[in-house]
From TrEMBL:
<dbReference type="GO" id="GO:0006508">
    <property type="term" value="P:proteolysis"/>
</dbReference>
<comment type="similarity">
    <text>Belongs to the peptidase S11 family.</text>
</comment>
<protein>
    <submittedName>
        <fullName>D-alanyl-D-alanine carboxypeptidase dacD</fullName>
        <ecNumber>3.4.16.4</ecNumber>
    </submittedName>
</protein>
<dbReference type="GO" id="GO:0008360">
    <property type="term" value="P:regulation of cell shape"/>
</dbReference>
<feature type="active site" description="Acyl-ester intermediate">
    <location>
        <position position="35"/>
    </location>
</feature>
<feature type="active site" description="Proton acceptor">
    <location>
        <position position="38"/>
    </location>
</feature>
<dbReference type="GO" id="GO:0071555">
    <property type="term" value="P:cell wall organization"/>
</dbReference>
<dbReference type="GO" id="GO:0009002">
    <property type="term" value="F:serine-type D-Ala-D-Ala carboxypeptidase activity"/>
</dbReference>
<dbReference type="InterPro" id="IPR018044">
    <property type="entry name" value="Peptidase_S11"/>
</dbReference>
<keyword id="KW-0961">Cell wall biogenesis/degradation</keyword>
<keyword id="KW-0732">Signal</keyword>
<keyword id="KW-0133">Cell shape</keyword>
<dbReference type="GO" id="GO:0009252">
    <property type="term" value="P:peptidoglycan biosynthetic process"/>
</dbReference>
<keyword id="KW-0378">Hydrolase</keyword>
<dbReference type="InterPro" id="IPR001967">
    <property type="entry name" value="Peptidase_S11_N"/>
</dbReference>
<keyword id="KW-0645">Protease</keyword>
<feature type="active site">
    <location>
        <position position="101"/>
    </location>
</feature>
Amino acid sequence: MTPPAIDAASYVLMDYTTGQVLAAGNADERRNPASLTKLMTGLVIDHALDQHKIGLDDVVTVGKDAWAQGNPVFKGSSLMFLKPGDRVTVRDLSRGIIIDSGNDACVAMADYVAGSQANFVKLMNEKSAQPGPAEHPFRNGTRAGCAGAVHHRRRFWR
């Protein structure tokens, strides 16, 4: 079977059930993580929900580090436009991450789930199938400010 013509720098098409790679192009190339970081953020949040450490109806108070206007790292990025002191449910912040790709929502949830962004990054790296020494670990829960970070995406296929 001839792989389809896909206009992308790299891609992988897999069978969800079997894990078999159906088509791939430059699959082993290291690439900027882009929104894969937000997917991993969502997985860590989902795990915290499954473990009953947090609930969808929990109310999160937004801290200054998640303030869209006050954080230069967020300039030009996707946001929910949260402000310090805003009170938002885990459900709405999760939607803000997955639907809006909100970097400010990622920071608010990282602080809520793990107490700090640094602790949340540790959870992300534990969850990411234990990258080898040549892999680049996650640096934050948003990808904002990750210029130069590259990931080997094959590890996310597991």
